[in-house]
């Protein structure tokens, strides 16, 4: 087998954001050589890799040139030039997740059709090649308010998604390929991180529960485990396992799901990489999601996905009234709370609702951890230095 | 208060070995800027810091120049030019642990006298300024075989320590200032990691038990918690707490102790830094020792020292018959065991008994973890590529 540890083997990572930064903790732990490329020369992953270079991940030539330098290529963000990944595969490079997997996921219309053709339960939808066609369908009564609009490409963190309740909402949408999705009545949003190795070994993490910030449409708290019945949790893990095997992805797959009032579980969307809903695992799990991603793509045995203890993750986002050099006001107050660990992503500048870090809270009692999460939220403010 | 997170603040670390490397996981987690100096341009800490430079830690001018570039200076190894640290302090630099603390610990004769003058229980000893004086004392019957010889300076990992049973052993010692120490009859070797912050907040970790490799005189297994009575554990933690407050150190202090057959606890020696006996904390504790060291020297609140679960650490040392480019043979076998995490220090070349990494094993049942530790030991071999 290949020797990855303190060897000449080179892992390439496309994208140098916080997910890449956290992945590098584990490449350092295993002393695996890493090459990182990101468009931003100040990207969080510029440190702790063996080699960093700047380049757009959508630039075919840049990705090709970068891919040729490494032995295995992975990514921490979906916005990557898929054609380049395909051509690197054709040259015999290992790319995990594969270009084919990414292609099925990158475009939301393709992703939704994939669920449909694989009998994976998901909210009803229709695809429109442009805004005009959508408007026509609405005026003809084929689509009725309210519905959820999603841009086929380019969405993240709640961007590219809108709830459309009226003609007025409709008129403010950009012109792009999109899907109109049934507005699902759900009682809980949950997620399961699945790991699948090159050899096809699959492991699922416990179901987590996501609580959203009402205004920013971003996840505010992630609870592990989700406060749902065991039978429902088992059903969700089985569904995530099914989704994983259908995609035949290699690496991590974060499967976000809705639970309806009648305990139906519907797949919302997936991400083929470490995910915000898996950050709890850094302090909470036997194997954190980043180490698990490495194990999967290097075809090492997958680690245990059991929890050491219960946990709640709080996203640290920039205060809505602040832009500029960041200050984590009150961080010493939350660090005085037992079992509370802040993770700072290393972005110099804060902006309203920008993801700047997260805080993990571990406690044997989940409801206690949830209460602590609110205290954490109230005691720390992500503001700018000058104001 | 000072803002350390994603700010202009610069932490200087003298020494770039595995302890420095693991400390950098946590400076990255908190996005604290780091400057590292080590004599070896290929030191494990050359990555993941913001700035790396080569230089001998014993070189006064190098340490002075390095210290002036940073806001706060710490070290991951005791072999540092203390005069430079003193002069940096005189210039107003914060050095944690202080030059005064390091001076009391760096020289074992000074360290032992410190215990005596502070009524800290320790094995009886006498100091000799050179080998000739020790030989005279032996020939005059003031010191009798067997006894433990320790060089006052320069010892680590069992080097600079010898059991002297005969004139022949005596004749093979180097000429240096040394101590002759009573050979203590002990049933267990234990250690406690103590953290003490700039403000004087003190926390102790649970007592760990150290099992030594019979030949290499190196720690083979570290068990947390130690398999001793609670009352004895409390006594050891209280003693470690006392030692910490007497030294008035800032940062971590690893206190190694002997337990005698009559349950006396004697201090063997201390190290003012993260320590091998605290590696279990990376996966086992609410706050790992490296994060705790940062909290202490930055005067942040100390984190909880409680364990998430029981753990056993196994040191990975180079096989005695191998020298050359390292291969971790069988590492995939131990990674298939749940709760087993290898930590690879990033040394390219293995040598007999060289510390190359460690493996943490976590399990709710300590005796199960201890059994797994032997399996780990038997399944992985640190060998060289060529042989």
Labels describing this entry:
D-amino Acid Aminotransferase, Chain A, domain 1, Rudment_hybrid_motif (chains A, B), 3 domains, homodimer, 12 helices, Dna Ligase, domain 1, nine-stranded antiparallel β-sheet, Rossmann fold, 387 residues, 5-(carboxyamino)imidazole ribonucleotide synthase activity (chains A, B), five-stranded parallel β-sheet, phosphoribosylaminoimidazole carboxylase activity (chains A, B), alpha+beta, ATP_grasp_subdomain_1 (chains A, B), PurK (chains A, B)
Structural notes for this entry:
The structure is a homodimer of 387-residue chains. The first copy, chain A, is α+β, with helices and mostly antiparallel strands and 387 residues long. Chain A has three domains: 10-95, Rossmann fold; 124-182, 2-Layer Sandwich (Dna Ligase, domain 1); 188-384, D-amino Acid Aminotransferase, Chain A, domain 1 (2-Layer Sandwich). Chain A is built from twelve helices and 21 strands. In chain A, strands 10, 11, 12, 13, 14, 15, 16, 18 and 20 form a nine-stranded antiparallel sheet that branches. Chain A has a five-stranded parallel sheet with strand order 3-2-1-4-5, with helices on both faces. In chain A, strands 6-9-7-8 form a four-stranded antiparallel sheet. The N and C termini of chain A lie far apart (56 Å). At the A-B interface, helix 1, strand 17, helix 11 and strand 18 of A face helix 1, strand 17, helix 11 and strand 18 of B.
């Amino acid at each position: 087998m290949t020797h990855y540890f303190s060897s000449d083997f080179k892992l390439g990572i496309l994208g140098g954001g916080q997910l890449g930064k956290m992945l590098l903790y584990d490449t350092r732990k295993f002393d695996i050589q890493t090459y990182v490329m990101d468009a931003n020369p100040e990207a969080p992953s510029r440190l702790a890799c063996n080699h960093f270079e700047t380049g757009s991940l959508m630039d075919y030539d840049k990705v090709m040139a970068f891919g040729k330098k490494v032995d295995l290529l992975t990514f921490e963000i979906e916005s990557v030039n898929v054609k380049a990944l395909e051509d690197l595969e054709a040259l015999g490079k290992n790319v995990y997740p594969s270009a084919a997997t990414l292609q099925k996921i990158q475009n939301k219309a393709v992703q939704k059709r994939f669920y449909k053709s694989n009998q994976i339960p998901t909210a009803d939808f229709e695809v429109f090649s442009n805004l005009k066609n959508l408007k026509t369908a609405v005026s003809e009564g084929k689509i009725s308010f309210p519905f959820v609009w999603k841009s086929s490409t380019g969405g993240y963190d709640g961007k590219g998604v809108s709830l459309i309740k009226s003609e007025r909402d409709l008129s403010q949408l950009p012109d792009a390929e999109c899907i109109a999705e049934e507005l699902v009545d759900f009682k809980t949003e949950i997620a399961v991180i699945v790991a699948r190795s090159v050899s096809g070994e699959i492991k699922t993490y416990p179901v987590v529960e996501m609580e959203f910030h009402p205004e920013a449409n971003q996840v505010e708290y992630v609870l592990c485990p989700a406060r749902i019945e065991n039978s429902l949790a088992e059903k969700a893990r089985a569904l995530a396992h099914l989704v994983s095997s259908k995609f035949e992805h290699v690496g991590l797959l974060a499967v976000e799901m809705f639970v309806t009032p009648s305990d139906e579980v519907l797949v919302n969307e997936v991400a083929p990489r470490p995910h915000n809903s898996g950050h709890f695992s850094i302090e909470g799990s036997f194997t954190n999601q980043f180490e698990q991603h490495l194990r999967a793509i290097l075809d090492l045995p997958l680690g245990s996905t059991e929890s050491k203890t219960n946990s709640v993750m709080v996203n640290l986002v920039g205060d809505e009234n602040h832009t500029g050099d960041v200050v984590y006001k009150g961080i010493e107050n939350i660090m005085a709370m037992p079992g509370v660990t802040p993770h700072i992503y290393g972005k110099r500048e804060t902006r309203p609702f920008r993801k700047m870090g997260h805080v993990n809270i571990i406690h044997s009692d989940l409801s206690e951890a949830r209460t602590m999460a609110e205290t954490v939220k109230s005691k720390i403010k992500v503001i700018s230095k000058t104001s």
